[in-house]
Design a protein that fits this description.
It is built from three helices and twelve strands. It is α+β, with helices and mostly antiparallel strands. It has a single domain, classed as Sandwich (Jelly Rolls), CATH 2.60.120. The strands form three sheets. Strands 1-9-5-12-3-2 form a six-stranded antiparallel beta sheet. It has a four-stranded antiparallel beta sheet with strand order 4-10-7-8, with no helix packed on it. A two-stranded antiparallel ribbon has the order 6-11. Helix 1 packs across helix 2.
């Protein structure tokens, strides 16, 4: 007798990329971001919403509009990766992708020891991303230090736990996904997914760039 066919009926798409030349770009990004942080309130988000503490600096949301070459290089990489993902998931050809109009917010976080970012998602956007400029230097015994943590939308599958389901790993299980970001790593995810950043327990600065995107697809021009 043949076993039953296993089908992944529901899924949440995440994408992971690594910038090949991050060792060249990231020091430039780091210098620029720390310079901007040094401007204080002038560069900060004037209307913070998600709970965080004083060990986290969050910038204004116009970072990708800055003319700084390092920022524009990062933007080009992020858009290239995001459009490739959107094309693959939606079955769009290159001509369709080139018609997409991207709207976005972009900002950076500089996190020092003890800094955290509470549970949230990103309303009014379809895709979000986080790029790691510098992960900081984690205390070796703090395994969850600075982890980008995604809440499993299937968390209700834990309503009844017995021997038939207790050992199922992701993507079938109820576990939360904790990511310890590395320099040059880009994570793309649907904006509705709840996530937080665990307290950073280490030396130096944990520096990330985040963005939200939403799109329109104008009709093709007709002769």
């Amino acid at each position: 007798m043949q076993p039953p066919e296993l089908v992944n009926m529901f899924a949440v798409p995440f994408a992971f990329s690594r910038l090949q030349d991050h060792a060249l770009l990231n020091p430039r990004l780091r210098r620029y971001i720390l310079q901007q942080e040094g401007r204080g309130a002038e560069a900060a988000n004037p209307r913070p919403l998600t709970q965080r503490n004083a060990a986290v600096f969050e910038s204004h949301f116009n970072l990708f509009r800055d003319n700084e070459p390092a920022v524009q290089e990062l933007k080009a990489f992020c858009w290239d990766q995001l459009l490739a993902l959107i094309g693959r998931l939606n079955g769009y050809d290159l001509a369709t992708l080139e018609r997409l109009q991207i709207y976005s917010d972009c900002w950076f976080h500089v996190t020092r020891r003890g800094g955290f970012f509470a549970l949230h998602n990103h309303p009014n956007a379809s895709w979000s991303g986080v790029y790691c400029v510098d992960p900081g230097h984690h205390d070796t015994e703090r395994k969850s230090s600075g982890a980008l943590s995604f809440v499993n939308p299937m968390i209700m599958c834990a309503m009844h736990m017995d021997a038939a389901v207790a050992k199922m790993p992701l993507p079938y299980g109820y576990q939360i996904a904790n990511l310890r970001l590395e320099a040059g790593q880009l994570v793309l995810f649907p904006s509705w997914v709840l996530h937080d950043v665990k307290p950073f327990e280490g030396e130096g600065e944990r520096i990330t760039v985040a963005f939200n995107c939403w799109f329109t697809l104008p009709e093709e021009a007709t002769e």
